[in-house]
């Protein structure tokens, strides 16, 4: 079961949050913003303390995106972070029994929807909050296919 | 991966692009200016297109500039224009290469009027797209046309030159 999605842009501000996937998480929009900022910071610290491996040094594009936090696990939830080469982070909060591969797969799908509905929307200004019903619908369809 | 994506007809694309360039030429009397505008528009397109490209091609980080060139020519051109391009003419330190496009779909039905043959780079949008897309993954390049069959040259050639690869840094606060 999935609880919430957050999308953080490359500068660390929250551009999209959806906690309506289930009614288990309730979070005020201001708190969500703060959370996203904090996560972005933690992620960047974690990637800075990641030891450099010989293999990584070979990559030229995207070296600045050395892997940071990928998963946070607790007794009651799992959080998976999928960072793409352009610096956008997609976060998914799910229950503990969800396998990470599934979460990763879901976020890859979300990224495709982002490419289709957000990037291609000529009225969307980059790095601004995403408020689009078509995007919302596509996300809903992905996570709650039984409704459709 | 290419079979899944939505397709539109080449005619529609090239005719739309044609009217678009014609309109720009009408609004600006200077072809140089049109070149610049096409480049700028392309760059804005590239900025947005990169996310779709990465998500659908499932490409991960490239090892070096050569791999970037390959991905652009083999996957980028294939995905958005339906043709593949050739990479050639590397310089000694691997910072500059040429892309050869054999059948540029954008210029399919086009013949340039004589007074534009020396000034207008008809498909200059492509340069902008390449530059804009790479910019988003922190690879700064300069990109320009060298030859175009529309101008009577033997081939269509785009030169891509690496300027720098930017690293994200977090500066210390000033004391």
UniProtKB/TrEMBL annotation, chain A:
This is Trafficking protein particle complex subunit. Part of the multisubunit transport protein particle (TRAPP) complex. Transmembrane segments: none annotated. It is found in: Endoplasmic reticulum; Golgi apparatus, cis-Golgi network; Golgi apparatus. SMART domains: Sybindin. Pfam families: Sybindin (PF04099). It comes from the Eukaryota. CDD domains: TRAPPC4_synbindin. Belongs to the TRAPP small subunits family. TRAPPC4 subfamily.
UniProtKB/TrEMBL annotation, chain B:
It holds the Pfam family TRAPP. One of its GO terms (cellular component) is TRAPP complex. Keywords: Endoplasmic reticulum, ER-Golgi transport, Golgi apparatus, Transport. One of its GO terms (biological process) is macroautophagy. It is found in: Endoplasmic reticulum; Golgi apparatus, cis-Golgi network. Gene3D superfamilies: Trafficking protein particle complex subunit 3. The keyword DNA damage does not apply. Belongs to the TRAPP small subunits family. BET3 subfamily. May play a role in vesicular transport from endoplasmic reticulum to Golgi. Homodimer. PANTHER family: TRAFFICKING PROTEIN PARTICLE COMPLEX SUBUNIT 3. This is Trafficking protein particle complex subunit. It comes from Euplotes crassus.
């Amino acid at each position: 079961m999935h609880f919430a999605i957050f999308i953080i842009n490359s500068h660390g501000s929250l551009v999209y949050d959806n906690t309506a996937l289930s009614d288990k998480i309730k979070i005020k929009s201001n708190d969500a913003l703060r959370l996203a900022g904090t996560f972005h910071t933690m992620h960047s610290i974690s990637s800075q303390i990641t030891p450099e491996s010989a293999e990584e040094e070979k990559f030229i594009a995207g070296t600045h995106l050395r892997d940071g936090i990928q998963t946070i696990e607790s007794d009651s939830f799992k959080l998976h972070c999928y960072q793409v080469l352009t610096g956008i982070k997609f976060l998914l909060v799910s229950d503990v029994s969800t396998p990470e591969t599934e979460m990763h797969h879901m976020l890859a799908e979300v990224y495709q929807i982002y490419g289709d509905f957000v990037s291609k929307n000529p009225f969307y200004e980059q790095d601004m909050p995403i408020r689009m019903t078509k995007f919302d619908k596509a996300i809903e369809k992905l996570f709650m296919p039984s409704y459709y | 991966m290419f079979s899944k994506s939505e397709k539109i007809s080449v005619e529609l694309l090239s005719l739309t692009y044609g009217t678009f360039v014609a309109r720009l030429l009408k609004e600006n009397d200077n072809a140089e200016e049109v070149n610049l505008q096409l480049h700028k528009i392309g760059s804005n397109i590239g900025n947005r297109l990169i996310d779709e490209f990465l998500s659908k091609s499932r490409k991960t980080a490239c090892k070096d500039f050569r791999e970037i060139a390959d991905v652009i020519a083999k996957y980028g051109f294939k995905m958005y224009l339906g043709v593949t391009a050739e990479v050639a003419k590397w310089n000694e330190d691997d910072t500059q290469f040429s892309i050869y496009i054999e059948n540029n779909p954008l210029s399919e039905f086009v013949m340039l009027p004589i007074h534009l043959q020396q000034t207008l780079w008809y498909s200059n949008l492509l340069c902008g797209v390449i530059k804009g897309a790479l910019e988003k993954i922190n690879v700064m390049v300069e990109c320009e046309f060298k030859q175009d069959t529309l101008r009577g040259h033997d081939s269509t050639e785009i030169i891509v030159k690496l300027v720098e690869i930017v690293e994200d840094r977090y500066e210390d606060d000033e004391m």
